[in-house]
Structures are given as structure tokens and as C-alpha cells.
Amino acid sequence: MKPCFWGRCILSLIRESGRVGRLPKCRFFLWLVAHDRCWTADRLAHRGLEHPEKCPLCDQEDETIDHILVSCVFARQFWFSLLRQVGLQQLSPLPDNKCFMEWWKMASEAAGGLTSRGLNTLIILGAWILWNHRNRCVFDGVSPSLAAALVQAGEERYLWELAGAKGFILFDSPAP
Q1: Reverse transcriptase zinc-binding domain: from which residue to which, for each copy (predicted)?
Q2: How far is Cα 18 from Cα 96, in angstroms, rounded to an integer?
Q3: What does DSSP assign to residue 85?
Q4: Do 146 and 81 form a contact (C-beta atoms < 8 A)?
Q5: Cβ within 8 Å of residue 108, ≥6 positions away
Q6: Angle at 103 (CA atoms; ends 149, 77), nearest 5 degrees
Q7: Distance in angstroms (rounded) separating the CA atoms of residues 165 and 111
Q8: Distances in whole angstroms, Cα of residue 44 to Cα of each of 64, 75, 101
Q9: pLDDT in tens, 108-136
Q10: CA nearest neighbour of 126 among 86, 164, 169, 172
């Protein structure tokens, strides 16, 4: 799909998420995702820069932003576990989902109604956590850990709720 289309799509999905969609860092990150501008191995290689051979989370495939967020084995386990906490595990990405934006749009439409607002907020949170976990693996030498990523997601979700993210109200939200 064209970046122009994803730009409009991402803005509508962010708006549906409520106050969290106004977080500049998340909004900018998702804009980068929608326009394939994240500095992953594929972009570094295209520019002739040093880059990792394989995805730092699964060490199985080439690293792209879509791979990190939706098609990586680590990412699929993360999404299943995160969405299972709110009873929406049936919406987690499948192995044939190769594009994050397409999966997000499909999951949001499948949830429908008020649930889609909470789901959009959760997907923004999940994508942000996966990106940050990937960066800790690349830059800090941390080993990929599903448990650590899920703990961070729980803590960040709690902080987002304190900051006024209303989409999570639709789900049970235990404190970390």
C-alpha cells in the first residue's frame, strides 16, 4: 500500500485511541512505521551502512519494521500474550500477516465498536514496547525476553492509564 494511504489510516487509528494518540513519541514512531522510515537492518543495508545480519529478537529472518512488529516469532508470541490478557487473543497476528498496518486495520475492524478504541490503544502500546525492546537488544546487548517485554507492557499500560488513556477502561486493568 502507498504511504499516503497508511498515513491517513494511522491518523484515524491514533485518533480512535484517544489521549494516548496525542503522545508525540508514539505518534511520531507510528508515522515512521507507516512510511517505512524506521532505522532497521533493511534500511541500513540499503544505504550501505553496517547492520545486523538477522532480527535481534528471533535471529531467524532479515530485520524490517514489519518483521519486528508482526511477523517475527517473538512478536507473534508477544501479541498473543498481550491480547490474551484482555480476551482478544483471536486477533493476534498469524504467520501469514506480513504487514503491521494491514494487521492493525484488520484487528481494529474485527473488534468493532468501543472495543476497537481499547484495542487501538493496546496496539499502539504493544508496538512501542516491541520497538523499545528491540532497541535494548541492539544497543544495550540485552537478550530478548518475552517475560521482560510483557512486564514492561504492563508497567507502561498502568502509566498510560494514570496519564488518562481511556481506551483501557474497557478492559480489566490490574496494576503492575
Answers
A1: 23-79
A2: 30
A3: T
A4: yes
A5: 13, 16, 116, 119, 120, 123
A6: 30
A7: 18
A8: 10, 21, 22
A9: 899 887 688 788 889 999 999 999 999 99
A10: 86
Predicted structure pTM score: 0.84
For residue 74, what are the contacts with CB-CB under 8 A and spacing of at least 6?
Answer: 55, 57, 58, 144, 146
Q: How far apart are the first and last CA of the chain?
A: 38
Cell of 15: 485518533
| Residue pointed to by grid coordinates 474485527 | 110
| Three cell numbers written together for 11 | 491518523
Four-point Cα dihedral 144, 117, 106, 88, nearest 10: 60
Contact residues for 162 (Cβ-Cβ < 8 A; gap 6+): none
Angle between helix 146-162 and helix 113-140 axes, rounded to 10 deg = 130
Based on the number of CB atoms within 10 Å of its own CB, is 62 exposed (0-12), middle (13-18) or buried (19 or more)? Answer: middle
Q: What's the pLDDT score for residue 175?
A: 42
pLDDT of 6 higher than 50: no
